[in-house]
């Protein structure tokens, strides 16, 4: 079973709407790896870095180019200024809107919505009552298992490997990541930018799946 490592199309692209901070980083690594290992491409606002590009326009463009979306709305804690984080629920709303009001291929958008504890969203985002959210419990294994099963069902692609295969491959990759980081010139794995991490995953899977 192989992952697609060619130029992504709309049907192969997954919009990643998750926290991008140090606390969430272990889960983000798992999300990105699971996308690739299932044969898809993760896309996020972190892929592009242009000071002349308005962030909201960039998000609109990325969402427009992705059939699938992973949305983690679990980050409800207040920051040091006692303000909540609204980015993830907002981008989930944009994704909903693209499916509802978009034309042609936008109508077939498909998403998975994560939270930390099942049904906690009813306390802070009750407008999406009825949505079958998935609880990851801050577990990389859980989030990869849910992503695998969702993409297998949503895409109907029989080439997607089983969840335990993906988890085992991810653990092998993480074991080798410090060496890869050093090879790329990073002092630690926590310093690896999003694009470089994606490159490392692509290369590791290219080598692994060529065997």
Describe this structure in words.
It is built from six helices and five strands. The protein is globular and about 45 Å long. Helix 1 links the parallel strand 1 and strand 2. The protein has a five-stranded parallel beta sheet with strand order 2-1-3-4-5, sandwiched between helices. The chain has 211 residues and is α/β, with parallel strands linked by helices.
What is the beta-strand fraction?
5-15%
Shape: globular
Distance between the termini: 11 Å
CATH topology: Rossmann fold
Spatial strand order of the main sheet:
2-1-3-4-5
User: How would you name the oligomeric state of the polypeptide chains in this document?
Assistant: single chain
Task: State the share of residues found in helices, binned by percent.
Answer: 40-55%
Mean residue pLDDT: 89
CATH homologous superfamily grouping: Toll/interleukin-1 receptor homology (TIR) domain
Number of strands: 5
Compute the CA-based radius of gyration: 17 Å
Main structural class: alpha/beta
In CATH's first tier, which class applies? Alpha Beta
Q: Tell me the number of structural domains.
A: 1
Report the uncertain regions. Answer: 1-5
Total count of helical runs of at least 4 residues: 6
Task: List SSEs in N-to-C order.
Answer: EHEHEHEEHHH
By CATH, the architecture is named: 3-Layer(aba) Sandwich
Largest sheet: 5 strands, parallel
């Amino acid at each position: 079973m192989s992952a697609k490592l060619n130029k992504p199309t709309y049907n192969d692209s997954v919009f990643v709407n998750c926290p991008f901070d140090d606390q969430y980083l272990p889960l983000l690594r798992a999300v990105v790896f699971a996308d690739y290992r299932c044969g898809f491409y993760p896309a996020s606002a972190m892929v592009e870095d242009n000071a002349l590009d308005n962030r909201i326009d960039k998000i609109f463009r990325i969402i427009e180019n992705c059939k699938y979306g992973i949305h983690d709305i679990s980050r409800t804690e207040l920051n040091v200024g006692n303000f909540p984080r609204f980015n993830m629920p907002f981008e989930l709303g944009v994704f909903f809107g693209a499916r509802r009001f978009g034309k042609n291929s936008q109508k077939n958008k498909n998403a998975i919505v994560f939270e930390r504890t099942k049904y906690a969203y009813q306390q802070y985002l009750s407008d999406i009552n009825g949505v079958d959210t998935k609880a990851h419990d801050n577990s990389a294994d859980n989030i990869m298992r849910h992503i695998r099963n969702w993409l297998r069902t949503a895409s109907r692609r029989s080439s997607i490997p089983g969840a335990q295969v993906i988890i085992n491959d991810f653990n092998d990759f993480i074991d080798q990541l410090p060496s890869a980081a050093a090879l790329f010139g990073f002092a630690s794995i926590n310093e690896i930018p999003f694009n470089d991490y994606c490159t490392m995953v692509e290369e590791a899977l290219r080598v692994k799946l060529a065997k």
